[in-house]
UniProtKB/TrEMBL annotation, chain A:
Cited SUPFAM superfamilies: Glyceraldehyde-3-phosphate dehydrogenase-like, C-terminal domain (SSF55347), NAD(P)-binding Rossmann-fold domains (SSF51735)
NCBIfam families hit by this protein: ac_ald_DH_ac (TIGR03215), PRK08300.1 (NF006157)
Protein name listed in UniProt: Acetaldehyde dehydrogenase
Catalytic activity: acetaldehyde + NAD(+) + CoA = acetyl-CoA + NADH + H(+)
EC number: 1.2.1.10
Family: Belongs to the acetaldehyde dehydrogenase family.
Domain Semialdehyde dehydrogenase NAD-binding: 11-128
InterPro entries for the chain: Acetaldehyde_dehydrogenase, Acetylaldehyde_DH_C, NAD(P)-bd_dom_sf, Semialdehyde_DH_NAD-bd
Keyword Transport belongs to the record: no
Active site: residue positions: 136
UniProt superkingdom: Bacteria
Pfam families: AcetDehyd-dimer, Semialdhyde_dh
From TrEMBL, chain B:
Catalytic machinery residues: 18
Enzyme class at the top of the EC tree: lyase
Highest classification ranks of the organism: Bacteria, Pseudomonadati, Candidatus Kryptoniota, Candidatus Kryptonium
Gene3D superfamilies per record: 1.10.8.60, Aldolase class I (3.20.20.70)
GO molecular function: 2-isopropylmalate synthase activity; 4-hydroxy-2-oxovalerate aldolase activity; manganese ion binding
Annotated InterPro entries: 2-IPM_HCS-like, 4OH_2_O-val_aldolase, Aldolase_TIM, DmpG_comm, DRE_TIM_HOA, PYR_CT
Keywords: Aromatic hydrocarbons catabolism, Lyase, Manganese, Metal-binding
Entry keyword Nucleotide-binding: no
Site label Transition state stabilizer, positions: 14
Source organism: Candidatus Kryptonium thompsonii
Residues given in the record as substrate binding sites: 14-15, 168, 195, 289
Identification of the protein by name: 4-hydroxy-2-oxovalerate aldolase
Amino acid sequence: MSAEYKNGKVKCIIVGSGNIGTDLLIKILRYSKNLEPVMMVGIDPNSDGLARAKRLGIETTYEGIDGFLKRKDLVDAVDIIFEATSAKAHIQNAPIYKELGKIAIDLTPAALGPYVVPPVNLGEHLDKLNVNLITCGGQATIPMVYAVSRVVKVHYAEIVSSVASKSAGPGTRQNIDEFTQTTAKGLEVIGGARKGKAIIILNPAEPPIIMRNTVYTITDECDSEDIRESIYQMVDEVKKYVPGYNLKSEPIFDPLDKYPIRIPGYGEFKRGYKVTILLEIEGAGHYLPKYAGNLDIMTSAALRVGELFAEKILREKSVVQ
Amino acid sequence: MEGKKIIINDVTLRDGMHAMSHQYEIEDMVEIAKALDEAGVDIIEVSHGDGLAGNAINYGFSKYPETEYISAVAGVLKNAKLDVLLLPGIGTIEDLEVVIDLGVKVVRIATHCTEADIAIQHIEYSKGKGLDVVGFLMMAHMISPDELVKQAKIMESAGADCVYVVDSAGAMLPQDVADRIKAFKDNLNCQVGFHAHNNLSLGVANSLAAVQSGADRIDASLCGLGAGAGNAPLEVLIAVFNKAGIKTSCDLYKLMDAAEDIVRPMMKRKGVEVVIDRDSLSLGYAGVYSSFLLHAKRASQRFGVDTRDILFELGRRRMVGGQEDMIIDVAVELANGLKNELEVK
């Protein structure tokens, strides 16, 4: 690897100049200890995100990934690529990144690499060249499902994410199926639920609604106090990198012996609890206003993962030297 | 326009699912579908109330898996086309794939009235399968006719054969319907449809206004079985259309019989009522998604607050279809508010 680490930072690029990519750029520039963004890649010369990047002194291209590949110097210097395009675009781009030996942190629901949700398995896949951050809804809700499943068996987890229409760009809109499918799988693989289901709602209300997530789990019998405690601990964990992550009310416990649930083709649940967790996620207001917590939860997760990869690269480099 | 036949799209087995809390028996569905088919109904919709893959804690689980209902109905239809509803964000193309093979001929893709672009994938896919594809713009009372036309055009250019004005909240007056249908007819080349809810007792009147303004397709259900105060009752609608000289393929007596002899006894057996009471009237008055009704009633019992207070708060927050989880949110908040008030006193 011929990359240089002059200022003690690892060079990265952001592919995708939409809401997510732009918010991530701002976060990296503001907070990152180990990452230096050197290019923002877009496909629309008039995109607001590219204009913003330019104003922030970051090189841009509107020729898509080819615009980056042309710049041999950058290709050599960069270690990490953040993909903030769409699932379809990432599926096309991923083999190119792999060929180049670059680490891809995928913020689309393409789900080619293993899933990462920071408070659950942040450090787990640092040996991989491609990791996936699931979806904003997944980043918001999987920690809660995990908080329940680490205490008691979760037979079923279901989440409803409501986001402001204004915060859902064309990528999200074209990816709506991938959103529900990838999130549902994340609830199982990382959240620890036996079966997962995800629903996303776009709400156009003005002023825009703050991102809301409702998490339902069907659990085995246990002490509800243990679940409650685990949930509160996890909220504090997530708050460390998304300060606007809040419970809207106490978790609600519906005893299944009183309110049994029958899922056709899956099973009937008459013992344990239906736990309802109501979350509100206020963003930091970096690129979009504070209602867009869906951006923050995703970009903050990406920053954490990127930071960790960069740390590892810097560590390995210093060992070599 | 004179003399054209109006296409009747029955929703007893889909919107009716809401009123039945999704607990339909397969035999009941089959019997109703047969009767509708024999009565000359053009299209019959079968899906979870919230569309394919609507089975969820948030919306309620149906008694049987969705594919069992759909296959059973597909097996008995002779003339009517089988149709399914899908809400992007809840169901996916994969869910469509599964049911298309079961004999589905019409696919309706529903979005909130301002979010048509999330349906593009699904419309294009269904069109590619050679199906009759309908765009379904819900809560259409919330935006102006001009804004609604813009959204309808997104669905039309994706390939929709018909776009619906959907009065999900049963909140429109006949003039609201006429304005929107006319705007569609003036600006779209595809067919135009209307879906009513009867919360303000205008289900049939609004459907009549829609046809008089040029609508090509109308939704209705036997006995009005549907969310909130139900849909336009199909048997009444056809009686009114007959009197108004509006042509359909439907046989009035057969529909009357199906309503009276099959659907009403089934509702009685299942303890299901579809009425305009203070709660369903509040839906229409406050402009709230009709499917919220039974969930709000349950939350009212669970948390000890007035159903109407929940519904009006949901309206004030401008909640859209699918946000049933916010019913709990509102109920909890209201209940906490009540508790605080009591403590202060």
